[in-house]
Amino acid sequence: MANQKGGVGKTTTSVNLAAALSMHGQRVLVIDLDPQGNASTALATEHRGDVPDIYQVLVDDLPMSEIVREVPDMPGLYCAPATINLAGAEIELVSLVAREARLRRALASFDSVELDYIIIDCPPSLGLLTVNSLVAAEEVLIPIQCEYYALEGLSQLLHNIDLIKAHLNANLQVSTILLTMYDGRTRLASQVADEVRVHFRETVLDTVIPRSVRVSEAPSYGQSVMTYDPGSSGATAYMDAAREIAYRAASV
Ligand code: ADP
Ligand code: MG
């Protein structure tokens, strides 16, 4: 889940998509790669104090199995938490061997839990943490907020993805674009959505995530929007998005 813009819905989508996939019967791991630890919070996974976290995996070679936790009351859903220590990783990684491939290596030797999906919630930057996730991943999902400036910075992200494809991860592909925080009452939102669809065509999911207070309230209860308010428009949208993604995966 990558987009160096902050506040576009990376974390919200990581968490709710993962929860929706797990409710569809899939086994899903969310890796929190943002020092703010918002995905960990939303998944009710301890990430304060000295809990073992993704920082120790990346920098100290701690095995993934030591940090992965089952999300309470969500069978099949797991979280690899981030503590604030991760804020230092961006600099500490610079001097390490194979600094771009630390996460890929950690995942290659992780087989404690059988998984259908691993979703990596990237920080809002194009630094080494995001590079590590793009080197470890097979697909990039880019959430785009239906607002003015939505496409700003996107060409830089796509350029970086091309560089990583050329040098570090030939199999990487931008498989999915998801329109988020769509406000059907504004003409701007539909204009942005149209523009994105013209540009990126079938990469864009048919499902659009509406702007909804339920979506923004759920994380403070350590819940996904599906458990917080199953009948809400946000819950329905994330269940639909998960189904679309699962069908796409099955058809390749
Ligand atoms: P990012 O991880 O890209 O920085 P977040 O997922 O944290 O973005 O979302 C930014 C803010 O927008 C958060 O406060 C979140 O609760 C809110 N938000 C995200 N998606 C929606 C939505 N569909 N409707 C309403 N608020 C949303
Ligand atoms: Mg985030």
From TrEMBL:
This is Chromosome partitioning protein. The lineage of its organism: Bacteria, Bacillati, Actinomycetota, Actinomycetes, Streptosporangiales. It comes from the Bacteria. Belongs to the ParA family. InterPro entries: AAA_dom, DNA_Partitioning_ATPase, P-loop_NTPase. CDD domains: ParAB_family. May play a role in septum formation. Residues 1-174 form the AAA domain. Gene3D superfamilies: P-loop containing nucleotide triphosphate hydrolases. It holds the Pfam family AAA_31.
